[in-house]
Amino acid sequence: MNAEKRYQFLTKLREENPNPRTELNYQSNFELLISVILSAQATDVSVNKATAKLYPVANTPMAIHKLGERKLKTYIKTIGLYNSKAKNIIKTCKTLAEEHNSVVPNTREALEALPGVGRKTANVVLNTAFGEPTMAVDTHIFRISNRTRFATGKNVLQVEKKLVKVIPDEFMVYAHHWLILHGRYICTARNPRCGACVVYDLCEFNGKKKDLD
Question: Of 77, 138, 161, 210, which is the active-site residue?
Fold first, then answer.
């Protein structure tokens, strides 16, 4: 896909959803961080159900750390990989309290030093909490970037670097949200909803549906 088509592609997504936001529910940068850690290999819906019960009880590093790993598990046991996530979250809360005055850091290096925080999680926090022009590539973004030929790559890091390179600055802060929502609800893995796609005419997917009725 060339630069002109990419610009039109993003313009159409912006027109459809001018102010996109994450579907994770949160009221602070710390809640966002914990929710993103929990969302790995889990749906936002399942995370929101768990945190709706957790955050009213504990929503600061000290409060969650005080709960302890065993008690934390009772709140997040419906989420995949909850054992390892509980362990990492308790360690992260301790680190935040001791090294960052209980404030979520705004640098990639500091974020990725936190237990359970990898590159994708750091990118989400940097983008959503601090408005940094980062691109967190999840399964949806990886799929539609390659499928539409917007930004191709053999792995998530290749696609991330390509997206950051080719997306114009004016779109960069919201691009992650536009792409993930488009992949989650329209350009789905199975049976993409081509008839509801606002960028159908720009998509270079050879297998896109020709009959849109």
Answer: 138
pLDDT tens string, the chain, 213 residues long: the values are 999 999 999 999 999 999 998 999 999 999 999 999 999 989 999 999 999 999 999 999 999 999 999 999 999 999 989 999 999 999 999 999 999 999 999 999 999 999 999 999 999 999 999 999 999 999 999 999 999 999 999 999 999 999 999 999 999 999 999 999 999 999 999 989 999 999 999 999 998 887 655
pTM listed for this prediction: 0.89
Active-site position among 91, 94, 120, 213: 120
Q: Is 138 a catalytic residue?
A: yes
Q: Is 66 a catalytic residue?
A: no
Which residue segments constitute the domains of the chain, with CATH numbers given?
3-20+134-196 (1.10.1670.10), 29-130 (1.10.340.30)
Type of residue at 72: L
d(CA 198, CA 17): 11
